[in-house]
Amino acid sequence: MLAVGVLAGLSVLSLLTYGYLSWDSLGLGPGVTEATRTGLGEELGAGAPSSQPHIIFILADDQGFRDVGYHGSEIRTPTLDKLAAEGVKLENYYVQPMCTPSRSQFITGKYQIHTGLQHSIIRPTQPNCLPLDNVTLPQKLKEVGYSTHMVGKWHLGFYRRECMPTQRGFDTFFGSLLGSGDYYTHFKCDSPGICGYDLYENDNAAWDHDNGIYSTQMYTQKVQQILASHNPSKPIFLYIAYQAVHSPLQAPGKYFEHYRSINNINRRRYAAMLACLDEAINNVTLALKKYGYYDNSIIIYSSDNGGQPMAGGSNWPLRGSKGTYWEGGIRAVGFVHSPLLKNKGSVCKELVHITDWFPTLITLAEGQIDEDIQLDGYDIWETISEGRRSPRVDILHNIDPIYTKAKNGSWAAGYGIWNTAIQSAIRVNHWKLLTGNPGYSDWVPPQAFSNAGPNRWHNERVSWTAGKTVWLFNITADPYERVDLSAKYPDVVKQLLRRLSQFNKTAVPVRYPPKDPRSNPKLNGGVWGPWFKEDEKKKKSDKSKGANKQKKNKNKKKAN
């Protein structure tokens, strides 16, 4: 008991230095008391291993399609390469072109048009969040006994307390609420004078953790602590949403060692950030093995969208970049690694989308999907594990009715079926259709990174046909979107436009409110956080006004 007391008294720094306490050593992880465990009905070493797998979902931020060793990158990613090689590589895997959309679809299993988040991202100053009537993945996993923990970037809104991660199904949360920020100070300015601190532990600012630790390493240490504290005989869901490799481009000095030869400063910094991320994922994997989770675990790795060439990312040989509906914006690095896979060391070329994780993971966890939840995702576990055909035949990449309209778009160009001024994209079997303004469309080859910034002279520029607002590609035959077939196959275009129109009939109104001045961190102790509070005085005054009106009406009746 004396030894336990001494260890419990160690500082956070000591714990980081000497390693976290484990079930193996003491049966008592950080923050877990004997009383807590007794309350949960647990005893040291008791309980048979659960048939429900441990689920670890790792989401990288802005990692380009080419930016992994097994896709030919000059950046070394030995951990990702090994985990993918021993698991199942997803080589027909799609996400959304930006942060909030991908995260919302992962956590709800629904397309953006069905949550109202079909335009852009949730801005820090907007009174907006993932609609509260949407059931989330951690909520469903909690129903069947999972302990649920999130570490990293939220970016699904926080203007009111009910929007926070701990109110949306997570037992614990440690990370940032916004889309980006400084990796060391966790400080973010949305605009001049609108700046604040953005590191949270559960529902409070985590000032105690503000030790200047690089966020990738800090988040990994938190994951190790969670794994050391939990009983591996009980199922756990860990959602690790790393900030890396999103801008600002920052990394500890030692990770630049192998990349001094990269002339482009942004690419060099990006490479160092990715090297640190790869090491972090190795440390997470080692912790899973050390604390007894690995043999019954499913590790899923995904990027949230394509890379941003101006910030060091590469999607070569795909077209376009983050923020666009070209393949470079939405085709992602992804793989599943698990001892539970039947076809290990394989490649899955079946169609998979980020919405599919919701029903897949709930089914694996032995949970129930309510009949009244209209999901857009499919259970694709047998597709991944056993190599069966995917139940998915189409993907609505998005319909954004308030994005900048294409000047030359019209109903006529859409055969009277669809207004081609609207930004939209859809995939049906081998075919992909885009309308409106799909976004930056260059191909950016590796040599474009030879100078200080991606050199536009090296890019393969696109010569636009005047007035063009519809594109059709056979993605299976032409994954690089070089041959537009819209003029050659008008009947296919019409078919896909009709499918778009059908989807659009099910869309809910867009949620994209103007910014709220009350969001300024200066009004909230210098911290980004919930600001929307019902004014009790206003409530009381409204009640008193209503009471006064009733009295007046009664007096009038009496006088009459």
From TrEMBL:
Q: Basic residues: which segments have biased composition?
A: 546-560
Basic and acidic residues composition bias: residue spans: 532-545
- Species name for this entry? Pampusana beccarii
Could you say which cofactors this protein requires? Ca(2+)
Q: What is this protein called?
A: ARSJ Arylsulfatase
Gene that encodes the chain: Arsj
Family annotation (InterPro entries): Alkaline_phosphatase_core_sf, ARSB, Sulfatase_CS, Sulfatase_N
Domain Sulfatase N-terminal intervals = 53-365
GO molecular function: any one? metal ion binding
In terms of superkingdom, the source organism counts as: Eukaryota
Give the record's family classification.
Answer: Belongs to the sulfatase family.
Which UniProt keyword terms apply here? Calcium, Glycoprotein, Hydrolase, Metal-binding
Annotated region (Disordered), positions in chain: 508-560
- What Pfam families is this protein classified in? Sulfatase
